[in-house]
Amino acid sequence: MHNREAIQSQISAVMSELFELDASNITLESRLYEDLDIDSIDAVDLMVELKKLTGKKIKPEDFKSVRTLGDIVDAVEKLMNT
């Protein structure tokens, strides 16, 4: 999971499986709460899965301002490059 497209693909697959979402509805512009109906408990589940995918400790403050799938991809990409 080193390039942006691979990160997006992995996250979309996880979200599709975890939250039973149609993968075609998950785009970089998708808003987590409004468009994908992700709640705070779902967000925690997603963080756990991202930790498994990246193998890195994820600090909640790194994801505080995340609002879209694109924001998640940015945060994971930054995490992977540290």
Write up this protein:
By secondary structure, the protein is mainly alpha-helical. 52% of the residues lie in helices and 0% in strands. Helix 1 crosses helix 2 (40-54) and helix 1 (4-19) crosses helix 3.
CATH class equals Mainly Alpha
Radius of gyration: 11 Å
Helix content: 40-55%
The number of helical elements comes to 3
List the keywords.
82 residues; Non-ribosomal Peptide Synthetase Peptidyl Carrier Protein, Chain A
What would a concise description of this structure say?
This protein is mainly alpha-helical and 82 residues long. It has three helices and no strands. The protein has a single domain (4-80), classed as ACP-like (Non-ribosomal Peptide Synthetase Peptidyl Carrier Protein, Chain A, Orthogonal Bundle).
Secondary-structure blueprint:
Blueprint: H1 4-19, H2 40-54, H3 69-80
Helix pairs in contact: 1-2, 1-3
